[in-house]
Write a structure and sequence with these properties.
The structure is a homodimer of 272-residue chains. By secondary structure, chain A is of the alpha/beta class. Chain A has 2 domains: 132 residues, 3-Layer(aba) Sandwich (Rossmann fold), CATH 3.40.50.1000; 104 residues, 3-Layer(aba) Sandwich (Rossmann fold), CATH 3.40.50. Helices cover 34% and strands 18% of the residues of chain A. The first copy, chain A, has 9 helices and 14 strands. In chain A, the strands form 4 sheets. Chain A has a 6-stranded parallel β-sheet with strand order 5-4-1-12-13-14. Chain A is globular, with a radius of gyration of 19 Å. The first copy, chain A, starts with a helix and ends with a helix. At the A-B interface, helix 5, strand 10 and helix 6 of A face helix 5, strand 10 and helix 6 of B.
Chain lengths: 272, 272
Amino acid sequence: MAATSWEDSVKSLKGVILDMCGVLYDAGEDGGTPIPGSVEAVKRLKASDLQVRFCTNETQATREVFVAKLQRMGFDICVSEVFSPAPAAVAVLKERGLRPHLLVYDGVVPEFDSVEKANPNCVVIGDAAEKFSYQNLNDAFRVLIGLENPVLFSLGRGKYYKEDEGLNLDVGVYMKALEYACDVEAEVIGKPDPMFFQKVLDDMGIQSHQILMIGDDLVNDVGGAQHCGMKGVQVRTGKYRPSDEKHPTVTADGYVDNLAEAVETILKLRGQ
Amino acid sequence: MAATSWEDSVKSLKGVILDMCGVLYDAGEDGGTPIPGSVEAVKRLKASDLQVRFCTNETQATREVFVAKLQRMGFDICVSEVFSPAPAAVAVLKERGLRPHLLVYDGVVPEFDSVEKANPNCVVIGDAAEKFSYQNLNDAFRVLIGLENPVLFSLGRGKYYKEDEGLNLDVGVYMKALEYACDVEAEVIGKPDPMFFQKVLDDMGIQSHQILMIGDDLVNDVGGAQHCGMKGVQVRTGKYRPSDEKHPTVTADGYVDNLAEAVETILKLRGQ
């Protein structure tokens, strides 16, 4: 395999950020299944001299529930290593004194327990999946259109993700719907928002050019990381599609078939 | 009342095109109710020397069923005077040999009876209302994303309309959702598409500058008509909102409180 730009930079790496769904596991109705080799790959990475963090736009469960699911799959992971949009949104809402109308999956509602929600003055949407009924979207629309200054937060801007049986629409699609309906631009909390990535960088305490992001979403993982000065590698698992490799605006620093191959390459080049 | 540009042009008018929902009647779960004065206004207009047509983005019923509903409300109207998106879409599908996956309201499905639908190679969405479930939108998305050249038709591009109890999301919102999900631009069949208005103009056989469009949708009725060289007046009924009068890109040629006032003004200025 010819050396590519990300392989050249592997020796100077100090940390790796991993996307979760589509990199560690494939989502499914039964909670999902690990992608072959990923459990072992995470273990090897955490045993190396590299810092490891997990950065997800997952908003269907609280971080605690979500991390417990990954642990049951065999992953060496804990809550403090995981960055997800809902806790970041709660911080923003409190800072700005905003009371959200929530259109989110039931499982993530407890993340918002500490936030005042009566008489809402903004809308927060997450990956609500089948909760994105016409009625629920219309209810969120009516809150927004009734506000003098409509404020819409979207927990990520993903287009779709892969579950066992195929591709499923993600929150970004409904964000676009409400943006158009109300002539408003959503504030995105989650990848690829630079503010969101910055929280992970702050926690790692290292420079962005010393960090590699590995994800299956070309725009939100790879493009978002590159925008912050990191390297970004796309795995050919999860929602990866061959057309990603000819994307008009985002070019990954490298491609690997899966996380196992990425970690094997990284550790080999670092002589570990 | 000061003379405005549309009033100056009233004497040279040869025809009037009326939007339906929000101008003739207000939609509602019980089928809707006539807007006060509109039944009489249509009668007076049709008794004048002006040609009258009806142009709607209504896609919840076949034209036959829809017109029968208006007749029951007391309106003097017949099917041949009404232009709606579904029959126009059927013509386009047949012309281009396309087989649609339909995401439309049950009531309009019979309009597509004569179109081959097996093994779909395009998607047609209409105002599907509560049929816009997550599952149904995802099904349409999967058809589109699976096509080498995704083709999406949207029966109108409206943002919302008014029903008894408030504003409801319209087809344009879901068009934007699928456009974003699949990186595709929808082909709009219905107002404000110029091709759609042209069918009405062809039927009337008069020049566009001799025609006045009266509607409650600033962008789709008024803006669409103006784009084709007609005058466009907005009624302050239906989905009208005061902020329309300060819209950044579309300025109506005039405002009236309702259709009755528009017709009263037109006939008075023409000495009828």
